[in-house]
Amino acid sequence: MLDNPKVTVFIPAYNREKYIGDAIESILAQTFANFEILLIDDGSKDRTIEIMRSYNDPRVRIIRNQTNLGIPKTRNKGIEQARGEYIAMLDSDDRAFPTRLEKQVDFLDAHYDYAQVGSWCRMMDEQGQPLKKTKRQPVSPEDVDTQLLFRCSLSNRSIMARTKILQEYGYRNDYPRCQDYDLHVRLAQKYKLGNLPECLVYGRIHADQITSQTLELGDEKKREIIRHQLKVLGVHFTEEDLGPHLTLSRMRKCHFTPDQDYLQWAENWLLKLQEANLQTRRYSERAFAQAVSEKWMRACWSAWDGMGWIALKYYFHSPLRKSLRNTIREHVFTRSAQHTFN
C-alpha cells in the first residue's frame, strides 16, 4: 500500500465481474507509476469482489459496501478515501490507454488554475474490440463551460481532478443519474475545466449500461441541471422549452427530423439565449456564439430530409450564422491588434 501516491485511480463497481479485471489491468499497465487503485465494490451479488481480491499488488486498495449504496454515495466515499493529490475516475466496464495518467498528471502539474481535465474517448464493443466511434469533447475551458448549458461536455470515465476540490464539492446524493454532469456545472462556475484533444480511455458499449436502462430518469435530471443554468443566465423560459432545448444536442443520436415549427422555435430560442448572455456575460461571447451557431447548423442540417432546400434557406438567412461570423472577425482583429501593440 502506497502512503503518498500522486494519483488515486478510483474504480467503483456493482456486478461487473465480466469487465472489472480489464479496467484494473489497464491501470496496472500505465506508463506513470506513482498511483494507487481504489476499488469500491458496491454490494455486488456476483464475483466482482473475488476478482478484485485476486490482484496481489500493493497499489490496489479494496473497500466493500455491505449493502448497495448507489452511485453518488459510493463515488463520494471514494473521493473521501482518496489519498492522491489527484483523483482519476474510471468506470468499471471501461479501459484506460497506457499513457492516460502520465499525460493528465503533466497537464494538471503545468496548469494550476484547472480543477480537472478529461479527454476524448474511443468506444469499444462488449468484447473489448475497438470501434470506429470516437466521442470528442470541447477542449478549452470557455467551450467546455458553454457546452454544459446544452449537454455534459466532459466524460466522467476520463476525468482527472484535484482531490481536495472534489472533496469540497462532492456529488449530490439526490442525483442517482447525471451526478457527474451536475458536479461539472457547479465546478465550472468557479474553476477551469478542460479536455485533452486525444483519446485516453475506451468506453465499453454493452446491454447492461446504467445510462441505457434509465433514460427517463436521466432526462428528468438533465432538465433540473439545465433549469438551474438558465436561471443563472437570466433567460425567461417555460417548462415546455426544456425538452426541445435538450434535443438541440441530440440531432444525430435520436434521429430527430426537425420541421418548420421546430426550426422557428430553435432560432428564436437560441437568439434569446445569446441576448441573455450579452446582458449577464455568464459565458465567453466567442464560445457562446460558436455554440449557438453549431446548434442552429445541426438543426437545419437534420431538417434537410424533411424540408430540403427550405432548411438551408432558414440557416443562411438567420442572424445566428451572421453573429458567429462577426464574433470570429472581431476576435481575430482583437488578437491582431494586441500583437501589433505589444
How large a portion of the residues is in β-strands, by DSSP E? 15-25%
Count of helix runs: 15
Number of individual domains: 2
**Low-confidence regions:** 327-342
Kindly report the average pLDDT value. 91
List the defining traits of the structure above:
single chain, 342 residues, alpha/beta, Spore Coat Polysaccharide Biosynthesis Protein SpsA, Chain A, 9-stranded mixed β-sheet, 15 helices, 9 strands, disordered C terminus
Question: How would you describe what is shown here?
Answer:
With 342 residues, the protein is of the alpha/beta class. It folds into 2 domains: 207 residues, Spore Coat Polysaccharide Biosynthesis Protein SpsA, Chain A; 108 residues, no CATH class. Helices cover 49% and strands 17% of the residues. It contains 15 helices and 9 strands. Strands 1, 2, 3, 4, 5, 6, 7, 8 and 9 form a 9-stranded mixed sheet that branches. Strand 6 and strand 7 form a beta hairpin. Helix 12 packs antiparallel against helix 14. The chain is elongated. The C terminus is likely disordered.
Task: Record the SSE blueprint.
Layout: E1 7-13, H1 20-28, E2 35-41, H2 48-53, E3 60-64, H3 71-81, E4 86-89, E5 95-96, H4 100-110, E6 114-124, E7 130-135, H5 141-147, E8 160-162, H6 163-169, H7 179-188, E9 192-204, H8 210-213, H9 215-233, H10 239-247, H11 260-280, H12 285-302, H13 304-307, H14 309-316, H15 319-341
Parallel strand pairs: 1-2, 1-4, 2-3, 6-9
Antiparallel strand pairs: 4-8, 5-9, 6-7, 6-8
